[in-house]
Amino acid sequence: MQNAAYLRGAGNTRFGRIEGSSPLALMAAATDAALADAGLARADIDGVLCGYATTLPHLMLATRFCEYASLDPAYAHGVASGGATGGVMAMLARELVRAGRCRNVLVVAGENRLSGQSRDQSIQTLAQVGEPDMEVPNGASVPAYYALLASRYLAETGMHADALSGFAVLMREHAAGHPDAHLREPMTLDAARAAKPIATPLRLSDCCPISDGAVAVVISAEPGSGTPVRITGAGQAHRHQHLCTLDSVLATGAADAARRALAEAGNTVAQIDYLAIYDSFTITLAMLLEELGLAGRGASPARLAAGDFGRDGALPLNTHGGLLAFGHSGVAGGLMHLAEAARQLAGRAGTRQLPARRRALFHADGGVLSSHVSLVLEAA
Predict the structure, then answer these.
(1) How many angstroms separate the CA atoms of 175 and 179, rounded?
(2) If we measure between CA atoms, which residue out of 373, 377, 379 comes closest to residue 51?
């Protein structure tokens, strides 16, 4: 019988503009916080998984970070899978622990994506997820890729672009309760819909901010103190890389990843009572919620309007504010969804704490809804 794997600790820096920061220093600060939360010392960490950083594209970033942070693991690996990287690393950490290869795996990511590079550098770097012969040479950016997705999805489902704005407003509401969030100022629905166009039909309010910041979690063979949070299921799917090869916007691979994770956990989506869903754009969130079976096609805005995804709703969603408001610092942005889910299930979310939650579904995607990873978390 394979061993269990627990989300034992989580730590993060604040997100936003952090002048003078560096990827290594940010990751080290998040690591210190995660180790303190887990009740572990550096010497207890025998595995390290490190997400890539666009502002420090080191060929051996995991080893470089271990050197910087005085870690001496028996296993270290750098991982790159776009926005899905945090989930991919958590899934791999779980397998390392269950196989007995490691006892305590540090999963860490962070970068100074806002202060460490210019806007043009960031846009150019991220645009490389496009198809190199047809998409990138035509000057497309990541917002443009997602705008194309949005246009097709809205047309096929009958959803109106204005319906997406409610997700941006909700994430601002949730971020207001987290002191480390990048965008804590409230935003009205009218303001969201009046935001300047970025790539039709997406407005500025539909896009996540670029941030500095770092996040770390510890996945262990032992639960540690307090309420144990176990990773009971995991699944991935990779049906395409480039937007031009996607067969249908209604089947990107998200459902496949979630089906595998839920089957391994022995659960159905109806048993989930907390959501940690990737939200690089409002259209990302709407599409994922619907493909994952959490709302009917074109109906996620109706569930949102009914209050289902709010703090007091049936399925609280990204109570830290998600990428749309807490911020997007590369891999760390997605990893923060996992940290928040673990804190909510463990009862350690402070003033954001919800009434007892039993099971969470985490889902992240990388590229243009290209690489998908789902995790099911359960509070013992």
Answers:
(1) 8
(2) 373
Do the Cβ atoms of 294 and 315 come closer than 8 Å? yes
Long-range contacts of 196-199 (CB under 8 A, 24+ apart): 198/143, 198/147, 199/141, 199/143, 199/144, 199/146, 199/147
CATH top-level class of 6-116+210-379:
alpha beta
How far apart CA 147 and CA 41 sit, in angstroms, is 45
Half-sphere CA count of 361, side-chain side, radius 13 A: 32
DSSP string, 86-129: HHHHHHHHHHHHHTTS-SEEEEEEEEETTTSS-HHHHHHHHHTT
Q: Beta 212-220 vs 104-112: how paired, if at all?
A: antiparallel
Q: How many CA atoms lie within 13 A of 268 on its CB side?
A: 1
Q: Is the peptide bond before 201 cis (omega within 30 degrees of 0)?
A: yes
Q: If residue 37 lies in a helix (H) or strand (E), which one and from where to where?
A: helix 23-38
DSSP state of 286: H
Residues 310, 316, 319, 325, CA torsion sign: negative
With beta carbons less than 8 A apart as the criterion, state whether 151 and 201 touch.
Answer: yes
List, in sequence order, every residue forming a beta bridge with 105; answer none if it has no partner.
Answer: 47, 219
In this structure, what are the phi and psi dihedrals at residue 45, rounded to the nearest 5 degrees? -80, 115
Tens digit of pLDDT at every position of the chain (380 positions): 478 999 999 999 999 999 999 999 999 999 999 999 999 999 999 999 999 999 999 999 999 999 999 999 999 999 999 999 999 999 999 999 999 999 999 999 999 999 998 878 877 777 778 888 888 888 888 999 999 999 999 999 999 999 999 999 999 999 999 999 999 999 999 999 999 999 999 999 999 999 999 999 999 999 999 999 999 999 999 999 888 889 999 999 999 999 999 999 999 999 999 999 999 999 999 999 999 999 999 999 999 999 999 999 999 999 999 999 999 999 999 999 999 999 999 999 999 999 989 999 999 999 999 999 999 999 98
Q: Which two tokens stand for residue 264?
A: 């391994």
**CB 235 within 8 Å of CB 374:** yes
Which phi and psi (to 5°) does residue 357 adopt?
Answer: -115, 140
Query: CA geometry: angle at 336 spanning 334 and 339, to 5°?
Result: 130
